[in-house]
Amino acid sequence: MNVIVIGAGGELGFHACEAVCSVLLDTGRASSLVMTYRATRPGHVSRVLAERLQGMKDGSVTEIQLDTSDHAAVQRLIEAESDRLGSTGLAVLFCAVPKHGGAASTGGTAVRAGIVDDVVFAARETMSRGGRFVAISTDQVFDGKPKTSTPIRSEGCDATAHDRARADLNLYTEDPEQDPTCPTNPYGQYKVEMEKSLLELAKSNGWDHLLLIARTSLILGLPPLLREFTGNSDPAAVQLDDALLADSGKAVRFVLNAISNSEQKPLVLFTDEPRNMSFADDLGCALAELAVERAHDENATGILNLVSDEPTNRYELALRLAATLGMTQCNAVPGESKTSGLNRPLDLSLSTHKLHALGLRTRLRGVSERLPVRLDT
Ligand SMILES: NC(=O)c1ccc[n+]([C@@H]2O[C@H](COP(=O)([O-])OP(=O)(O)OC[C@H]3O[C@@H](n4cnc5c(N)ncnc54)[C@H](OP(=O)(O)O)[C@@H]3O)[C@@H](O)[C@H]2O)c1
Question: Boundaries of each RmlD-like substrate binding domain copy (predicted)?
């Protein structure tokens, strides 16, 4: 199979490349992976795996520069890859995204074009050639307001089964009838436009079986030293230094930077914005599985909430990171989004029923499983 990962230098993109290499190797068939980047090269991605894939008969790994707004170049690339290696199939994973600001986004023409036009163009080029297309969306397509008159969502991972069943009623599903999108910021609005355009494109051309839109939530990138952390590991063995920060994903780096700097004002982190945070390495594996191994699975199409089961808030994330690193102080304080005046979506917890029904090999682990420390608060 020929796979193109667009935006391979990004946080999710490079983990997707690593996982795709591994999945392609497992198939044992002639395969190619093209990793595209704009400015940041996917330098340290999967060098060992890439070398092995390169070493396979007819295997290849290529890194090319591509700006997704250059539609002629996107077309040339997709056309070339769909013709390569005969008819072994094509999959395109679109992980590129312009800088957008998330819930605090202010939007703009270029951001909209990068999120909507560039993705839809690449999708048309891919699916018209019979290729599998995977796009990434966000929980910011919802407003996070309680769906029922009484807030019934349960907190944390110690909820009883009864609590969970009741809480389920308030989780956002993929079903547009049950959960119509209602974004509150430009980033969410553009992602809604992207989702709708892609679904319409697929439907009107009979390509529904080729399209997957993975909705995810906050992505956490752990540095390699923390990826295999168990509650029994010695926290002192991992030093919080520049190398560790450089190896962390954007959200983790931001939190670590702030909570370790006691000379700064404590960082206010919201406790009332639960998010189904997932880890970039797990997500990369799930995406590779969905794009390559499940390329012909009709259930793995349309919109899919691709997240861990565990809604967590940012304050808890900070406490867990601090405890994992053996920090005696965590320079953060809990705060409430609802009284902050920022008008951000509150509870964006997503249902994972469709994901579980797919029975993927990859499990998307939650924060308490990846950072299994005792919290005293
Ligand atoms: N991170 C999260 O918490 C989160 C949550 C929900 C959904 N998502 C979605 O997940 C996907 C991946 O996000 P991410 O956090 O991994 O992104 P990221 O780390 O910010 O990486 C984005 C990548 O896109 C590239 N890019 C931007 N504009 C481009 C263009 N015109 N042409 C080619 N490449 C371009 C960037 O390249 P350069 O740096 O070289 O410019 C960068 O490598 C996105 O669709 C995002 O909306 C992310």
Answer: 47-220
